[in-house]
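Note on ligand handling. Small-molecule inputs were canonicalized before submission; formal charges were left as drawn, and no protonation-state enumeration was performed. Where a ligand contained multiple stereocentres, the stereochemistry in the source SMILES was retained. For flavin mononucleotide, this procedure yielded the string shown in the input block below.
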Amino acid sequence: MSLFVWLGRNALFALDPETAHGLSIAALRSGLPVCPKPAADPRLKISLAGLDFPNPLGMAAGYDKNAEVPEALLKLGFGFSEIGTVTPKAQPGNPRPRIFRLVEDEGVINRLGFNNEGHEAAFRRLAAIRGNGIIGVNIGANKDSLDRIADYVTGIRRFYSVARYFTANISSPNTPGLRDLQARESLSALLGAVLAARDDEAVRAGGKIPVLLKIAPDLTEEGMDDIAAEVLAHGLDGLIVSNTTLSRDGLKDQIQAKEAGGLSGKPVFERSTTVLAKMRKRVGPALPIIGVGGVSSAETALEKIRAGADLVQLYSCMVYEGPGLPGKVVSGLSTLLDRERVNSIRDLRDTKLDYWADRPM
Ligand SMILES: Cc1cc2nc3c(=O)[nH]c(=O)nc-3n(C[C@H](O)[C@H](O)[C@H](O)COP(=O)(O)O)c2cc1C
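Structure output:
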């Protein structure tokens, strides 16, 4: 890691995590070059759900909640970026402090609670973008909503003209009751309504935008069975596995570990990768899956692909590694492909599927 990044990291770590996050967004928004973009490698290209990704690494939701810097993120080397979670109305989220660093574990706990500026603000920013990069829109429900499913439907309709894909996020642990939408009957109702809205908009717009579902890593085997069955029955376009965990297993930092919220970063890698493989086994080889949770290097990104992911996302480890991380992961993937002597990263998918799927939860 460069001296610059270390100095930057130490200065940023002296600040409260949310202030540091705001500064990093401001730096990206300034348009000044932060890091050189990695060289394009045709072996890293992935065509999936009708989209052509230049490489398999994306920025996970939650960093750019209000669509302020999606293109600046692409310039860091990400092959795609996901904005949101956005809710129909702006909402403040939970009281501060609400993001905590677990430095020894290279983890993060957050209980933000979908703080965001609402649909209109994000829509205006996305509508002004002229580039052609892949930007996904992650949609959710307001905390005080009387009809949560209607909030997701509103999201599909509002962003249909600007989203390249949608993520229905039903797995944040910080909106009370939201994860209940993962239960079979509620999930069926949600997917039915969301896909009906998508199909309706598709007729008007003349093309189908893919819809993915983002799930928690805290699921039982039966819970995973139910989700897989509903996803296949409704013909959903893909899964994102996973969101943050409520588990605190194996943490060194026992002080911050007591904070309420979802845990992410290195401590969630094993759990999220295990659920990813278990879901890949359940849904079969054709359904697109994005693996997310604890990706910190080219090796861990490739491990997600070996466990069944088509694409990968990261967020928390960038807090520790800085803005050079996406470039490092992408160029590191090229080096790993040289070593593996394969012509496409796709050839490595599922090569450790059994290893990961057979792990106990
Ligand atoms: C501060 C913070 C805010 C997040 N906000 C969202 C969000 O709004 N929507 C969402 O789907 N996921 C959100 N996530 C979850 C991440 O997208 C990701 O699924 C999770 O952190 C695991 O990946 P990671 O270990 O690479 O961070 C958030 C994560 C963090 C750390």
